[in-house]
Design brief:
Helix content is 76%, strand content 0%. By secondary structure, the chain is an all-alpha fold.
Length: 465
């Protein structure tokens, strides 16, 4: 029987998720969780002690993600990502199939170096520019746009540092980044490869075998220019062609490649240090923040560019979102909802490792589809933490949560904030994508990719244990 406290906690949780997904008048996504958390505190459902615990849990993850985004903003300010768009077109050499796999690789690498939400913000405009350059029809554009978004989001699974929710979960369960990657990289890559191939097969009739002749000519012009980006231009006047690729030479020249190599060296060193520090139990947020500061200072000293763009574009609200959302979920825990779920699944989950992986992975997938992956991964982590599982089962159950949250959540557009951001960017660029179009493809492909990932996690765990 539900008490008044549990009824209020559930109502606030559902209202928070509803407004988070709806976002009337495009309010900042941090506002609904902040309001929900405030109500729970005023009603006495969460205490000041709970708030201190949640603050300690989410602060490091939030700083890490914010620092990563700041570094990506510096690269963006160089015009690097726009240059990547033109380069992808050139490297595809008129093949729609090759372009598809180049886009997949771009989205995967961007998420691996930065994070999933940042990857969506960076890669979606790039893909839009590519399909516009190539003058593709809406039907031909969709495979690149959807597949790129799905891979950009799901690619946060292999390494825990590429997703805010993953980092929070790591903090709760006490797993370091190296252990996470050791057990997760192969299973999640199997799922990503499966999803990429299935999307290619699903869209094979819409992906053009050859890119239109006009665009191929532009690409050939660009290829001649792109390999000469370190040389001075041979003429003083820019080409008169209005096509975007006509200005590609100017774009290539505008990038300071020496500084780009410096920035990338810093970013790679920071990425490696995150794993090393995590292994030794040293907080990684300091490394990430120091890396962002170094990149910003180098740009300031070498190019005289201030920090106004970084301050303006950095998602400072990430901390408020994570803090508020976790408090809302913690309110459900205090109201004993997690105890009810534990009673339902504890016995089958404890029976064997295969059960633990499948049940937890599917449970989080269902919750993410209903509530969004951020509250679902937090709720799932609280559930396994209070289930009394053996240490090996506990860590593997955590990995199943990550797969359910990062991969299974992609069945519906509401499953992740990244998917909602993607649809918002498309809408702002005049590209209409309905939920029906999205779900028609994902409902067939994502469950298969999730199942492959979960089964691979089981077999991989047995192999390396």
């Amino acid at each position: 029987m539900m008490t008044t406290e549990s009824t209020l906690a559930l109502a606030i949780f559902l209202a928070t998720v509803l407004f988070l997904l709806w976002r009337p008048k495009e309010i900042n996504e941090a506002i609904p969780p902040a309001i929900g958390a405030t109500l729970l505190y005023c009603l006495g459902i969460v205490s000041f002690t709970d708030m201190r615990y949640v603050f300690d849990t989410v602060t490091g993850a939030s700083i890490t993600i914010i620092s990563t985004m700041a570094m990506s903003i510096v690269l963006e300010s160089m015009g690097f990502f726009r240059w990547v768009a033109f380069n992808l077109v050139a490297k595809s050499e008129g093949s729609g199939t090759r372009l598809y796999w180049n886009v997949i690789l771009l989205c995967f690498l961007t998420t691996m170096f930065f994070n999933n939400d940042g990857s969506i913000v960076i890669t979606t405009p790039i893909i839009i520019e590519i399909v516009n350059i190539l003058e593709l029809t809406p039907r031909q554009q969709f495979p690149y746009l959807l597949s790129g978004a799905i891979i950009a989001t799901a690619s946060s699974a292999p390494i825990g540092v590429s997703n805010l929710a993953n980092l929070i979960a790591l903090k709760i369960v006490g797993v370091d980044l190296i252990t996470h990657t050791k057990y997760m990289f192969v299973p999640s890559m199997m799922g990503l490869i499966t999803i990429s191939i299935l999307f290619f097969l699903y869209f094979r009739k819409d992906i053009p075998l050859r890119i239109p002749a006009f665009s191929r000519v532009c690409m050939l012009l660009y290829r001649r220019n792109i390999h000469n980006y370190d040389r001075p231009p041979k003429h003083d006047h820019p080409p008169k062609h209005d096509h975007p690729l006509a200005n590609s030479k100017k774009q290539a020249h505008s990038i300071n490649w020496v500084m780009f190599r410096v920035y990338m060296t810093v970013i790679i060193v920071v990425r490696v240090c995150l794993f090393i520090f995590s292994y030794y139990g040293i907080p990684i947020e300091g490394v990430a923040a120091l890396g962002a500061l170094i990149v910003i200072l180098i740009r300031w000293c070498s190019q005289g560019t201030g920090i106004s763009d970084v301050l303006k574009k950095t998602p400072w609200h990430v901390f408020i979102f994570a803090f508020g959302m976790y408090l809302v979920v913690y309110g459900l825990h205090n109201a004993k909802f997690t105890d009810l779920i534990i009673q339902w699944i504890k016995e089958p989950v404890s029976a064997n490792l295969g059960n633990a992986i499948l049940i937890i992975g599917i449970l989080v997938t269902v919750m993410a589809s209903l509530f969004n992956n951020h509250p679902s991964i937090m709720l799932g982590t609280i559930i396994i933490t209070n289930m009394g599982l053996a240490q090996n089962y506990f860590q593997i159950a955590y990995l199943a949560i990550i797969l359910g949250s990062d991969v299974g959540s992609l069945i519906l557009p509401s499953g992740t904030l990244a998917s909602l951001i993607w649809m918002f960017i498309l809408k702002n660029n005049g590209i209409a994508v309905t939920w029906k179009q999205y779900i028609k493809a994902t409902i067939l492909i994502i469950p298969i990719g999730l199942l492959v990932s979960l089964l691979s996690l089981y077999w991989w765990t047995l192999l390396i244990s």
